[in-house]
Amino acid sequence: MTLPMTLSADVAAALDAGRPVVALESTIITHGMPAPENLETARAVEAEVRAGGAVPATIAILEGRIHVGLDEAELARLAGASAVRKLSRADLAVALVEGATGSTTVAATMIVAARAGIGVFATGGIGGVHRGAETSFDVSADLYELAQTPVTVVASGAKAILDLPKTLELLETLGVPVFAVGQDDFPAFWSRSSGLPAPLRQDDPARIAEAQLMRRALGLPGGQLVANPIPEAAEIPASEMGPQIEAALAAADAAGIKAKEVTPFLLAHIAEQSQGRALAANIALVRNNARFAARIAAALAAASAK
Ligand code: PSU
Ligand code: MN
User: Fold this and answer.
1) Under DSSP, is residue 183 helix (H, G, I), strand (E, B) or coil?
2) Rounded to whole angstroms, how far apart are CA atoms 178 and 5?
3) Which domains does the chain possess?
4) Helices (H), 174-237
5) 60 has which bridge partners?
6) What's this model's pTM, rounded to 2 decimal places?
7) What is the pLDDT of residue 306?
8) How far is CA 87 from CA 18, 112, 211, 225, 274, in A?
């Protein structure tokens, strides 16, 4: 069976010529942010990638076809659509067969990026081990994807609604390199530090790109997590976020929220409770990650040409 996948003209041209490309996910547009900030952010993130000299490739499923690179109308249609599936490794294939429209999580975006030949991807925060996972078993498929699909993911760590120590432990078990950028601590999404040291630190995008290629030379599967802290001006201190996260978790529990709905529910609750501050922070960190990802993409293109 042939894969129903369309590359936009500028993404196809860049990949053919070996020029830098940065993949972007779409769940953050459909399930991670409210309108109209979702569409504004998607455009701003693409502009950051372009300003960094790379071509943005936002990935989504439109009526049973994978799109790598959305045009303005497609982006607007996705951001405004109501019944959009949140697609991950488990449900991507069947969504294509059913002709569905869906956004791609970190895991699904990595799968598509790797198929398209894109080695770098920027987002806000990856999914991870949820608090209470010892009873709920709620662990994001994003972690297992990082262990098997060769894409470097730039994020501001894992979302701080998660159990960050357990998330780091599982990443280590799965053999996923986790680099902090510009500091030694693992960031906590809205806050610059989680208080936990990151396993690795690498400030040079060229070394990060080379490490991805060296993993391939070693015959190792999987990608890398680049944990880039939120810019100082946009950060919300962890002491302020703590109670808001606790309140969101209690509300999710009371409402019986499970599985795929957990992350979108918690993010929406926190965005509302913080009067937009958490959302502004989320936007700032994604844009910053797009800038750093463009630098890695440039280094990857240069190293691959050698
Ligand atoms: N980063 C954000 N907002 C988001 C996400 C990431 O700033 O909404 C999405 C990503 O698509 C990630 C997903 O893969 O949340 C995690 O969902 P889950 O915990 O159900 O695996
Ligand atoms: Mn989950």
Assistant:
1) coil
2) 30
3) 5-305 (3.40.1790.10)
4) 205-217
5) 67, 103
6) 0.97
7) 80
8) 29, 12, 29, 20, 28
Which amino acid is it at 256? Answer: G
Tokens at residue 16, please? 């053919």
Q: Which of 61, 63, 66, 51 is nearest to 29 (CA)?
A: 61
| % of the chain beyond a pLDDT of 70 | 100
What is the mean pLDDT of the segment spanning 137-151?
97
Which positions ≥6 away from 202 have C-beta within 8 Å?
179, 181, 208, 211, 226
Instruction: Tell me if residue 292 falls in helix, strand or coil.
Output: helix
pLDDT classification of 82: cutoffs 50, 70, 90: confident
Contacts from 91-99 at CB under 8 Å and sequence distance 24+? 92/61, 95/61, 95/64, 96/4, 96/61, 96/64, 96/65, 96/66, 97/64, 98/64, 99/63, 99/64
Atom of ligand 1 nearest to the CA of 263: 19
Structure token digits, residue 278: 């958490």
Distance of CA 16 to CAs 7, 119, 120, 183, 301, Å?
11, 14, 16, 36, 11
- Whose Cα sits closest to atom 20 in ligand 1? 260
By most ligand atoms within 8 Å of CB, the mutation choice from 92, 104, 123 for ligand 1 is 123
Gap between the terminal Cα atoms of the chain: 34
Q: Under the phi-then-psi rule, with left for phi > 0, alpha for psi from -120 to 50, and beta for the rest, what region is 114? A: alpha
Q: Give distance in angstroms: CA of 285 to centre of ligand 1.
A: 14
Nearest to 282 by CA among 45, 21, 24, 23: 45
Closest alpha carbon to 164 in 60, 277, 248, 242: 242
Residues 6+ apart with CB under 8 A from 238: 160, 188, 191, 193, 194, 195
